[in-house]
Amino acid sequence: MGLANGVHHAAYCTSDLKAQIEFFTDVVGMRLVALYWMHGVEGAMHAFLELGATSSVAFVHMPQIGDIEPKLGITHAGNAGDPVAGGVLQHMAFNVDGEDALLAMRDRIRDRGVQVHGPVDHGFCKSIYLSGPEGMQLEFSTSEAPIDAEAWIDPEVVGLCGISSEELERYKAPAAGPSGAGRIPQPTFDPAKPHQIFAPPMDEWIRTASDEEFAKVMDHPEPPVPQDP
Predict the structure, then answer these.
(1) Rounded to the nearest 5°, which phi and psi values hold at 88?
(2) H or E element: which one contains 121?
(3) In angstroms, rounded to a whole number, what is the distance separating the alpha carbons of residues 107 and 229?
(4) Which domains does the chain have, with CATH numbers?
């Protein structure tokens, strides 16, 4: 209860929103389901391409993104095995149901003139690999069963990561969270903890704003196109 059970959306920045929409609808076959001004971000556009009823690939476009120079190893990995700066998305893997679907996706991509490599058998999944616009690194994968932790957690790698046996057991079976039903208050800002970074004066406000104050500023439940009741 209260745990994540999938990816709702992964959001990429883009300097060419139309090109990304064209690629993900035509080459990949996703359906455009939202395209609007991003809530709470002046001058930003937001697009969502549907993976499932509650899962999407999203894009954020702002004019200044085009002025940021892509650099391999910093902003972009270049392929699904090369390094990139910590905290940056290295590649995105999309799920398909079965090997037939994986090969059908490969056919679709190749039919659009885009190179795609694989399948590669990783044991717990089979995958194909390609690049998208602006150097995005993409993967499509299929698994016959959930990953078996006993078979796929390598003791050598565990040791190299400095993980003790006690820590490993805790990682494999995380403790349940508090059943606060939303009653736990916001902790005091601690710069040593992960936190969002905003320009002044937003940075000071967001550190002390209540949930109600934050929602009052950020809530935008109405769609941009009014619908008949």
Answers:
(1) -95, 140
(2) strand 117-121
(3) 42
(4) 7-67 (3.10.180.10)
- Distance, CA of 46 to CA of 169 (rounded, Å): 40
Q: Please state the length of the chain.
A: 229
Q: Is the dihedral of CA 68, 81, 90, 112 positive or negative?
A: positive
Rg over alpha carbons for the chain, rounded to the nearest Å, is 21
Q: What is the pLDDT of residues 10-51, one digit of tens each?
A: 999 999 999 999 999 999 999 999 999 999 899 999 999 999
Give the chain's end-to-end CA distance (angstroms, integer).
Answer: 34
Q: Where are the alpha helices (DSSP H) in the chain?
A: 17-22, 99-111, 149-152, 155-160, 165-172, 202-208, 211-218
Q: Compute the distance between CA of residue 40 and CA of residue 68 in angstroms, rounded to an integer.
A: 22
Burial (0-12, 13-18, 19+ Cβ within 10 Å), 61: buried
Burial class (CB within 10 angstroms; exposed 0-12, middle 13-18, buried 19+) of 57: buried
Residue 34 bridge partners (DSSP)? 48
Query: Residue 37 — φ and ψ, nearest 5°?
Result: -70, 125
SS3 203: helix
DSSP 8-state assignment for residue 200: T
Q: What are phi and psi of 185, to 5 degrees?
A: -75, 160
What's the pTM value of the predicted model, to 2 decimals?
0.91
